[in-house]
Write a structure and sequence with these properties.
The protein is of the alpha+beta class. About 25% of the residues lie in helices and about 35% in strands.
Length: about 150
């Protein structure tokens, strides 16, 4: 392969890349989910009325968060997912984030979220199999909440 062919392939790859990274803007497409005050109402606004399977997702959070402004949340699953949503029940709005999962990519995420007080974190996964999964874990937030 000569240099011009190599550069041509590189430019073609760059042109294809943005199309493969497109994701659904859940804030624009599902605004009610971002205004919901409870996890259940946010789930329904995002995914509709669903029955959730409560297995298949590993959620790791601290038992006690010393800083409510930066709570580490680790999410892992072997489920082939279309999307992964994060919710909490201590702040006024429950929805935290929704991730579109690219085809063939594993779900092994580490994020940090804010919580004003003790509560629960819920993860929901929309599977490519048409099923919905979720898991919740409670945690304590030390005095000071987001300012701690």
């Amino acid at each position: 392969m000569n240099r011009r062919e190599f550069i041509g392939f590189g430019i073609m790859a760059l042109a294809v890349l943005p199309a493969s990274l497109s994701a659904l803007d859940y804030r624009k497409e599902k605004p009610a989910a971002w205004k919901a005050k409870t996890v259940d109402s946010a789930l329904e606004a995002l995914y509709g009325k669903q029955t959730y399977i409560e297995k298949g997702i590993k959620l790791k959070v601290p038992k006690v968060a010393s800083n409510g402004g930066a709570i580490p949340v680790d999410i892992k699953t072997d489920i082939e997912a279309k999307s992964v949503a994060v919710f909490q029940d201590s702040n006024p709005e429950s929805a935290v984030a929704v991730f579109t999962v690219p085809d063939g990519q594993p779900v092994n995420y580490g994020i940090k979220i804010k919580m004003k007080k003790s509560g629960a974190i819920t993860i929901a996964v929309e599977g490519k199999d048409g099923k919905f999964y979720k898991v919740s874990k409670s945690l304590e937030v030390a005095l000071g909440g987001c300012e701690g």
